[in-house]
Amino acid sequence: MQAEWEPQSMVQLTWPHKDTDWAPILPEITAVYEEMAREISKREALLIVAPESLTSDIKHLTSNILHLTSNDTWARDHGFITVEETSALSPQTSDIRHQPSDIVLLDFKFNGWGEKFEANLDNQINKHLYDQGIVKGKYESHLDFVLEGGSIESDGKGTIFTTTCCLMAPHRNQPLTQAQIEARLKEYLGAERVVWLNHGSLIGDDTDGHIDTLVRICPDDTIVYTGGDADHPDLALMEEELRALRTLEGRPYRLLKLPLPRPIYDPPVAEGSVGSDSVADSDRLPATYTNYLVINGAVLVPTYAQPDLDAEALRIIGEAYPDREIIGIDCRAVIKQHGSLHCCTMQYYQ
């Protein structure tokens, strides 16, 4: 499985529409998606999945549109997961029409993060993308196995990182054991090893601990990760795990700690009232800087209108990607549905 920073051919956005949970804030979230779309299309091809009724609203952003409705917009989790053909060790190929590419398109089942939400429409998107020739590669169906793109990270060198709290969560792949799930990850993703992190989660997270909200793998054996606060003691235990972790060559990783944004609530609470009874009717949202997207020549980083912490996060991510432009995108609207920037996107490779 490729590392995210390898050369990409395209990024997918599945567009917000009136029949998604975005309906109450549709203009607000659409503005964020338009900003993401503009930054992506400056550097590589952009694919948008959207109902046909939205064509006139998005055609100025790209001509690469799949007209299809969806349950929601989390392309990271319903999109194809791709590997290089040489990494597909035991392909279960349901359609062997070879494309002029060494890319294998792995179509896993998305079940709304353990059957929390409807996902039947989202699960049909990949096959339509393939059948219409919008994405290129060799199609493999693994729809008997639940796997979300946000739950795994690859260093491009044979190591896959994930979390036990997500992949072992109820209503994913029971009754498979951890050892059986690991064997499938190695087989499907061409991995030499799987690193399981046993700690780390964010308040308000619907995904049961996706790794892309906590830990990201970067070039040159660097890891950026989310720091904790008094409400997230498990993040300190996660940091201890990372400090003990070694590369395949036996070396420690270079660790860069990202700040945790100050608490953001929905509905908002007045400044100074955090910790009082006034927050009882508000949900703390899972804001994290770790949920960034690497694209060709740039990194798109979620920000939260917290200038000091936003600037610190941008600086640290710049240390991890010194050869790329670091671009902040205000994601306060995105986290109202308990995700962030990386969750909204899925990249494809050359």
Q: What would you give as the CATH superfamily?
A: L-arginine/glycine Amidinotransferase, Chain A
pLDDT averaged over residues:
93
Per DSSP, the total helix count is 9
Low-confidence parts: 87-91, 94-100
Structural class: alpha/beta
Strand tally is 18
Largest sheet: 4 strands, mixed
Q: What number of domains?
A: 1
Helix content: 10-25%
Highest CATH level, the class: Alpha Beta
Q: Oligomeric status of the shown chains?
A: single chain
Judging by the overall fold, what is the CATH architecture? 5-stranded Propeller
Strand % is 15-25%
Shape: globular
Amino-to-carboxy terminus distance: 13 Å
If you compute it from the alpha carbons, what radius of gyration comes out, rounded to the nearest whole angstrom? 19 Å
For the biggest β-sheet, the strand order reads: 3-2-1-18
CATH topology: L-arginine/glycine Amidinotransferase, Chain A
The helix/strand series, from N terminus to C terminus, equals EHEHEHEEHHEEEHHEEEHEEEEEHEE
Task: Give a verbal description of the structure.
- The protein has helices at residues 26-41, 55-58, 75-78, 112-115, 125-131, 164-167, 178-189, 234-244, 307-320, and strands at 8-14, 45-50, 65-67, 81-84, 103-109, 138-146, 153-154, 159-163, 193-197, 215-218, 222-226, 254-258, 265-266, 283-284, 293-295, 298-303, 325-330, 345-349.
- The chain is α/β, with parallel strands linked by helices.
- The chain has a four-stranded mixed β-sheet, with helices on both faces. A three-stranded mixed β-sheet has the order 4-5-6, with helices on one face. It has a three-stranded mixed β-sheet with strand order 7-8-9, with helices on both faces.
- The relative contact order is 0.16.
